[in-house]
Every structure is written in structure tokens, then in C-alpha cells.
Amino acid sequence: MSPRRFQEPPVTLGLPLPPVDPPPDCQECVQRAADRDRATAAGDLARAIDMTVLIKRHHPRGPA
Description:
By secondary structure, the chain is mainly α. 47% of the residues lie in helices and 0% in strands. The protein contains two helices and no strands. The chain has helices spanning 27-42, 45-58. α1 packs antiparallel against α2 (45-58). The chain is elongated. The chain starts with 26 loop residues before the first helix and ends in a 6-residue tail after the last helix.
């Protein structure tokens, strides 16, 4: 049996976007940023990215 050949190269994913700074007047996002920092320190990149996504969703146009 011959090996399979693909017409396109594999997809290469880049590094995640850099973390965003939460607005200082939003305690919910300040807490998420602290959670993100703890997750990053623990090596839990998935949770750190999740916290960044939640901050961006809560403030889609950036800090006020």
C-alpha cells in the first residue's frame, strides 16, 4: 500500500494574540486578567486565552 499524498500543505497555526488590558473601572475584567495571569504562571495557556477572549467579548470596542 502506497502512502497517501495530500495536495495542500498542513495548516500552521500562529501564536495566540497578545493579552489585552482590561479597563480599570471594570472589576469583572480586572478579575479575569488576574485569573489569566495565574493561568499563565501555571502553564495553563488554554485558560489564559479563554480569559483574554472573555475580556474582549465584554469590551468589544476596547477600553472605554
